Amino acid sequence: MSGLITRRGLLAGISALGAGAALSACGAKTGGDTSKAAGAKADTSGDTVRVGLLNSLSGTMAISEVTVHNALLLAVKEINAAGGVLGKQLKPVSQDGASDWPTFAEKAQALITDSKVVATFGCWTSASRKAVKPVFERNKSLLFYPVQYEGLEQSPYIFYSGATTNQQIVPALDYLKKQGLTRLYLVGSDYVFPRTANKIIKTYAKANGMEVLGEDYAPLGSTEFATIVNKVRSAGADAVFNTLNGDSNVAFFKEYKSAGLTAKKLPVLSVSIAEEEVKSIGTQYLEGQLTAWNYYQTTPGAANEKFVAAYQAAYGKDKPTSDPMEAAYISVHLWKAMVEKAGSFDVEKVKAASDGITFDAPEGKVTVDGATQHVHKTARIGKVTANGLIEEVWNSGGPIKPDPYLKGYDWAADL
User: Fold this and answer.
1) Is the dihedral of CA 65, 67, 71, 77 positive or negative?
2) DSSP state, 377?
3) How far is Cα 126 from Cα 123, in angstroms, rounded to an integer?
4) Contact yes or no for 13/190 (Cβ under 8 A)
5) So what's the pLDDT on residue 40?
6) Between the CA of residue 170 and those of 36, 191, 199, 261, what are the distances in Å?
7) DSSP state of 375
8) DSSP states of 319-349 as a string?
9) Sheet containing 119-122: which strands, arranged edge to edge?
10) At what angle are helices 21-30 and 7-15 packed, to 10 degrees?
C-alpha cells in the first residue's frame, strides 16, 4: 500500500462530514456477505480470547499510530501478567489499516468475522473511524477509539477514550482568548476532523470576539506548504490553530521556520502533535509552540511514572509517551474493568456495566460516562521544550464531563 492516501479513501473521509455519504461508500467496499457478517460472534470458548488491534502500521499516519499500537500491546501484556480477564489470557491480533480508510473497514470486518475478537482497539483519524463505524454497528461489536476528535458523534458500539471537543478544542480556544490571541489562521489536513473542528472553531470565534483570518487545507501526506505558510505570514494573525495530521506536520513546520516564523512571532497551537511527533519533526522546529491534550509524558503522578517506565523498558529508554498512546493504553484497562463488572464478554452486558467505571490512569483518574460512552478527562495546554518533551502551562483543574454534541454551550446550538 502506498504511503500516500488514496483518492478514494480521502474522498470517503471528507464526505463523512456531510450526511453520511462516506458510510455508504465504505459499506459498498466492505459489505460483502453482510448477513453472515452480522452473525459473527466472538470466540470465548477457550483459555484465551482474541482482541483486535487496528492501526496504521504503514503509510502517512504510521508516524503517529505505530506507537499507539505499541501502547496497546503493553496494556495487553500487563493484563495477562496480572491473570488476564475473567481468567482468560488475551491474544492480540493486529491488522494494518495502512493509512487508507476503506482498508480500515476491510480489516475491521476481518477482525470481527475471521478472528472473532471480543473487542477492537484502534483507529486514529476521524476518517478511519467513520469508515469502520458502520462495520462495528452492523456486527454489534465494540471498538475503543483512543484519539481526540471533533465530537458531534455517538455510537452504541464505540467507546471514545480520547478527548471530545469540550475537553480539548474548546479549552484551547479559551486559553488563546485569555492570552489575547484572538486573530486566528486555521491550517489543517483535508478530511473530516479538521473540517469539522474548524467549523466549530469559527462558530466559537464568532460568539467570543475572535476573528478567523484564513483557512487552508492540505491533503494528508502533503509535503508542499510554501503557499500556505506565505498566506499565514501575511494574514496578520495572532496565532495559528493547527489540525494537520501525520507526517504533513514535518513539512509544515520546516517551511514555517524557513519563512522566519517562530513561536514568539506567531505561535502555533496544535491538537495532533504529541511527544512522538515532536521527536520526528525535530525540536528545533517546534520549541516554544503550543499543544492541547489531556496527558503529557511530564504529567505528574505515580501512575504516570509507572507507565513511562514500563513503556520505555519495553520499547527503549529514548522512546517518549504521548496522549494518544496513553488513551489507547487506558482503553484496554477500562474494557477489562467493564468486562469484570459485567462478569461476561457479552457486548451488551459490557456496555451496561460501563457507566462509572474508573481507572487510575497516567493522566489522572478517569471515569466512563455510560450515557455517551466517552471519558471524563482533564484538559491541558502544553509548550514544547528544548529537550523535546512538552511541559504543561495550564490545565482545567480537574476532569471535564464529556459533551460531544456541545449541548452545554449556547453558541454551539446550530452545530
Assistant:
1) positive
2) B
3) 8
4) no
5) 66
6) 42, 20, 12, 25
7) E
8) ----HHHHHHHHHHHHHHHHHHHHTS--HHH
9) 89-96, 48-55, 119-122, 143-145, 158-160, 374-376, 364-369, 358-361
10) 140
For residue 289, which phi and psi values (nearest 5 degrees)? -75, 160
Number of H helices, E strands in the chain: 15, 15
Output the pTM of the full model. Answer: 0.89
C-alpha distances (whole Å) from 312 to each of 87, 136, 317 are 28, 33, 5
Q: What are phi and psi of 40, to 5 degrees?
A: -65, 135
Residues 337, 357 contacting (CB under 8 angstroms) = yes
Query: 368: Cβ–Cβ under 8 A, 6 or more apart, which residues?
Result: 159, 334, 338, 354, 355, 356, 357, 358, 374, 375, 376
CB atoms within 10 A of CB 318: 8
Report how far residue 378's alpha carbon sits from residue 363's, in angstroms, rounded to the nearest whole number.
Answer: 8
Instruction: Give the pLDDT confidence score for residue 26 in this predicted structure.
Output: 33
Kindly list the averaged pLDDT for each block of 10 residues, start to end, along the chain of length 415.
35 37 34 44 95 97 95 98 98 98 98 98 97 98 97 97 98 98 98 96 98 97 96 98 94 97 98 93 97 98 98 97 97 98 98 98 98 98 97 98 98 95
- Strands of the sheet with 211-218, listed across from one edge: 211-218, 183-189, 239-243, 268-270, 290-293, 380-384, 390-395
Pairing of strands 158-160, 143-145: parallel
Locate cell 521556520: which residue? Answer: 257
* Length reported for the chain: 415
Asked whether 311 and 74 are in contact (CB, 8 A), the reply is yes
β-bridge mates for residue 218, sequence order: 189
The 8-class DSSP code of residue 85 comes to: B
Q: Own/partner pairs for 279-286, CB < 8 Å, 24+ apart?
A: 279/320, 279/388, 280/63, 280/247, 280/250, 281/249, 281/250, 281/253, 281/254, 282/250, 282/253, 282/254, 283/384, 283/385, 283/386, 283/387, 283/388, 284/257, 285/253, 285/254, 285/256, 285/257, 286/253, 286/384
